[in-house]
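User: I've been trying to design a sequence by hand for this structure and keep getting stuck. Would you show me what you'd pick, starting by listing the structure so we're on the same page?

Assistant: Good idea, let's start from the same input. This is the structure you sent:
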């Protein structure tokens, strides 16, 4: 971990975090726009209650302030890898259901999928900098297929809502990781004050 403590590594970490924060902000903005278009196109109620999306850890976490920087990065990476699979599945379902009828929604979904993939790569770079390579991407296989078209629509709504929440959490996690000081990537000690 000595490499992660050098001044150049700390500067690189802050730079990667700053770029990640911008990426997360742009992604959240695009996901919110996509969510609005998705709700309208799918004929859903924007306030519809949706169950938790299987395979994606919830963005809300207890004891967030006690997590180390590495724990934050690993949770973010697991979430974005899951989103990558779910968004790819949603894109395929969109193509099957609508064909080319709504190419704009498909393009927006593909753009967000690309952003999620780029963000996952960005997180992998941060993990390498922290002297911890990213875990292998041997997911549990493809996410389970919803049974009906309506279930697909609701799951899509849930995926986009959770992705928007993860973008907010990711920016928060990266801000915490970018803080200067010897313990920037670690959990605060009981004697430290916020």
């Amino acid at each position: 971990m000595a490499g992660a403590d050098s001044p150049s590594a700390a500067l690189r970490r802050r730079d990667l975090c700053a770029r990640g924060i911008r990426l997360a902000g742009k992604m959240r903005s695009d996901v919110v726009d996509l969510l609005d278009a998705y709700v309208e196109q799918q004929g859903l109620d924007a306030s519809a209650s949706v169950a938790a999306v299987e395979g994606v850890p919830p963005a809300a976490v207890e004891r967030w302030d006690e997590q180390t920087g590495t724990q934050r990065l690993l949770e973010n990476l697991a979430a974005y890898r899951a989103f990558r699979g779910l968004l790819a599945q949603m894109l395929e379902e969109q193509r099957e259901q609508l064909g080319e009828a709504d190419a704009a929604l498909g393009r927006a979904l593909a753009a967000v999928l690309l952003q999620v993939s780029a963000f996952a790569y960005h997180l992998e770079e941060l993990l390498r900098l922290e002297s911890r390579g990213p875990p292998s991407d041997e997911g549990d296989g493809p996410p389970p297929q919803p049974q009906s078209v309506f279930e697909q629509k609701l799951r899509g709504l849930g995926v986009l809502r959770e992705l928007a929440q993860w973008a907010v959490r990711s920016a928060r996690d990266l801000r915490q990781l970018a803080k200067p000081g010897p313990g920037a990537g670690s959990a605060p000690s009981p004697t430290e004050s916020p």
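That's my pick for every position. To get oriented when you compare it with your attempt: The helical segments are 2-5, 7-42, 69-98, 103-129, 149-178. The chain is about 65% helix and 0% strand.
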